[in-house]
Amino acid sequence: MKRTILASLLVLFVVSAQSQIVSQWGNIDTRYPDNVESLTNKKRVNSASAWRGERVNLQLLVTNSGDNACDCSVEYEFSELRCGSATIPSTNIVGGFVQPVITDKFTGCGLHAVDAYGENLSADRITDTNPTVISAGTNRGLWLTVEVPRDAKPGTYSGSITLKADGKSYKSNYTVKVLARTLPAPCDWQFHLDLWQNPYAVARVHNVELWSPEHFEALRPYMLKLAAGGQKVITATLTHKPWNGQTYDPFGSMVTWVRKADGSWWYDFTIFDKWVEFMMSCGIDKEITCFSMIPWALSFRYYDQATDSHKEMKCAPGEEAYAQFWGGMLKEFAAHLKEKGWFEKTFISMDERSLGQMQAAIKVIKEYAPGMKISMASLYHPEIEADITDYCLDIETYSAYTPELLARRRSEGKISTYYTCCSAEYPNLFTFTDPADAEFIALEALVKNLDGYLRWAYNSWTADPESDSRFTAWPAGDTYVIYPYSISSIRWERLVQGIQQFEKYKILLAEARANGNKSAEVRLQKLLKKVNITKIANESERMVKEFRDGLNAM
Questions:
Q1: Which of 221, 213, 215, 193 is closest to 202 using CA atoms?
Q2: What average pLDDT score do residues 89-117 get?
Q3: 35 — pLDDT class (breaks 50, 70, 90)
Q4: Given a cut of 90, is residue 7 above it in pLDDT?
Q5: The 3-state secondary structure of 349-382, one letter per residue
Q6: Is the pTM of this model over 0.90?
Q7: Which residues have C-beta within 8 Å of that of residue 2, sequence separation ≥ 6?
Q8: How far is CA 346 from the centre of its chain?
Q9: Of 9, 34, 202, 352, whose CB count within 10 A is highest?
Q10: Nearest to residue 41, comparing CAs of 163, 140, 154?
Q11: How confident is the model at residue 13 (pLDDT cuts 50, 70, 90)?
Q12: Residues 6+ apart with CB under 8 A from 542
């Protein structure tokens, strides 16, 4: 009798401590909160449409509820997608549970204590941990990205996600409609994506020696992911701390400047070459942007052979010492680039520098490295516009791009883009940003008839980026859109989704014009007119969905 009572009590305890896993389709526009009580799941989406070669996203909402729920280990499995005898293999479906990171709120630019603007959680990091423990009384989004093969048969494909927890299985079905159009490979996308890479941060996080074989091995997954998003530009540094060490992991110089004992100069391009060759092997090879002839501190480190020590040369554009210091290097650099076959795709790059400084630096470039291209991210300066082959304007001032200016620049083979940073609340890529805003970024480039978008930080991580995205100078998440170990984010996935819509629009518009299809051209133009940045604070979700659906209906 005692054993029966004891057994009954044990069964009662096990049942009372069981988790109750509930799964339901959510949507990709929501960062689902940890707290079940604060959950509002207004829209449920379990289908997507895609061109062949396109990546589309869905999000399943998983809740660990019940009156006496306990922490629970949940495993997920993606099935293949089937349409009759045609399949999309499960290896083309990637994703994971969306983990929260610490964030804050929009504060603009300026130094502040890390916790000055509070501590909130925002679901952003798409972890590959499988299984994952979901705490009692919490939610987790399960993000999945379907990469439709470029040779997929058109039709509606059905698949499922199976969750396993506490010895039970939970299946959620979804569909992907593959349309009879094909998106080019990312390397052939027209969108000019320029996200600055920080290899120094990778060395720190992976605890490997800078520029060692282990460092390049660690770097590869990040740069392959970047290339798959259509990245066109290699970020290289010619000087030490070109941005005055503003990031947690400062940028060093990829060129070693040596003043020999006899006073002459020697320049070692070994690291620069290794970096460029590595990036090209990852599929990023359109442009090499080299920072910076005008670093923020106007101080240049070099190795002094006579004293066997590093020294700093302080000089400013317009000074004779500056012209002499840079002139010899530029001459050697240009010769080296021509020998490597890289001269035509290499740019001397500056950002947010004054007109006077730029004019003086341009004069030196023209004198010592004639034909060298120049890129700049800054305000608009009509006095030097003709000298800037790749010009990127801040979203606060990009209205300076007139239709006539853009038409002329495009006819000259020049690139015109825009950028966002800590100064713009919408659209942006902070960890608290609405997911749809990330997709909106590429649509805004379409609206303004621009070639693409630049952002200063692909992976300039904070001290603990996997859990705390706050930094001491800018809104949380401003310094990176990808996590250590090449873990994706909602922001990254939606940014790429927007770039794909840019490509689709360009393809459809070119096709309509080539075929003289005026009605299709008018439909596309009307569709684009509905994308209005003045409404982004409240309507970005609606606008990007209507635009995406409109393109898929063409």
A1: 215
A2: 94
A3: confident
A4: no
A5: EEECCCHHHHHHHHHHHHHHCCCCEEEEEECCCC
A6: yes
A7: none
A8: 22
A9: 202
A10: 140
A11: very low
A12: none
- Pick from 550, 285, 284: which is nearest to 443 by CA? 550
CATH fold of 19-182, please? Immunoglobulin-like (2.60.40)
What would the pLDDT profile of 250-299 be if each residue is shown by its tens digit? Answer: 999 999 999 999 999 999 999 999 999 999 999 999 999 999 999 988 99
d(CA 110, CA 473): 5
- Identify the three-state secondary structure at position 544: helix
Parts of the chain belonging to CATH 3.20.20: 189-552
One-letter identity of residue 433: T
pLDDT digits (tens, 9 = 90+) for 108-155: 999 899 988 889 999 999 999 999 999 998 999 999 999 999 999 999
Secondary structure (H, E, C), 93-156: EEEEEEEEEEECCCCCCCCCCCCCCCCEEEEEEECCCCCEEECCCEEEEEEEEEECCCCCCCEE
- pLDDT given at position 151: 97
Residue 283 falls in which region: left (phi positive, over 0), alpha (psi -120 to 50) or beta: left
Give the pair of three-digit tokens for residue 393.
């304007």
**Cα 194 versus chain centre, distance:** 9
- Determine which helix (DSSP H) or strand (DSSP E) holds 242, and give its type and residue range: none
Look up the CATH number of domain 189-552.
3.20.20
- pLDDT of amino acid 252: 97
- What pLDDT is stored for residue 296 in this prediction? 87
User: What span, in angstroms and rounded, lies between the C-alpha atoms of 72 and 229?
Assistant: 34
Structural contact between residues 166 and 90, judged by C-beta atoms closer than 8 angstroms: no
* 435 cis-preceded (ω within 30 degrees of 0): no
Q: What is the distance of C-alpha 160 from the center of its chain?
A: 28
Eight-class DSSP state of 305? T
Q: b vs e for 225-246, b when ≥16 Cβ sit within 10 Å of the residue's Cβ?
A: bbbbbbbbbbbbbbbbbbbeeb
Alpha carbon distance 492, 459 (integer Å) = 11
> Do residues 539 and 436 make contact, with C-beta atoms less than 8 angstroms apart?
no
Report pLDDT digits (tens) over 381-416.
999 999 999 999 999 999 999 999 999 999 999 999
- Measure the CA–CA gap between 250 and 417, rounded to whole angstroms: 26
Q: Where in the chain is the domain with CATH 2.60.40.10?
A: 19-182
Cis peptide leading into 131, omega within 30 of 0? yes
